[in-house]
Design goal:
Helices cover 0% and strands 56% of the residues. The chain has strands spanning 2-13, 16-27, 30-42, 48-50, 57-60, 65-68, 74-76, 96-101, 115-124, 127-136, 139-148. It starts with a strand and ends in a 6-residue tail after the last strand.
């Protein structure tokens, strides 16, 4: 069973959203956070969004509730939630040093969690270059590449 579900939804345009879902798994010996997310596209003519995995669907209703077919359940919009309009994030706003890690939900596997240290450099408003290292099992793995924003429907 999972507890404390939360979902953040960011519109990426009229027919696309990005979601982040978090909850806590509590089923000893499996105890830990669960984090999932991704970009989902709207099924035409509906309030249903589907991610690349065909069975993962999130449906929104007019009262602010959201129902997920897989993952961390059903959600209700908070009264304090802001109503936001779509804003494009400039690649220059992402520039800088980034640190992060991926923690496995199994407590005994936490020592095997990779740690990331990267630097992002903006090339223009829609592109950035990323370079750095991922440390996994005490082995440094290089990370490098150029990322380009993909516009959908304009």
């Amino acid at each position: 069973p999972t507890i404390c579900p939360s979902m953040t939804v960011v519109p990426l345009g009229p027919d696309m959203i990005e979601t982040w879902r978090t909850c806590c798994l509590f089923c000893p010996p499996f105890i830990g956070p669960i984090v999932a997310g991704g970009v989902q596209t709207r099924n035409p003519g509906t309030n249903t969004f589907r991610d690349p995995h065909p069975s993962k669907i999130v449906t929104f209703s007019a009262d602010g509730t959201a129902r997920a077919t897989q993952g961390c359940g059903n959600f209700k919009k908070r009264r304090t939630s802001q109503k936001r309009t779509f804003q494009k994030v400039d690649a220059r706003d992402l520039a800088g040093n980034w640190r992060g890690c991926f923690c496995h939900p199994l407590v005994y596997s936490w020592p095997f969690s990779p740690v990331f240290c990267t630097t992002k450099t903006a090339l223009n408003e829609d592109q950035y270059e990323e370079s750095g290292r991922c440390c996994f099992l005490c082995l440094p793995i290089p990370i490098s590449g150029t990322h380009t924003r993909v516009y959908v429907n304009g």
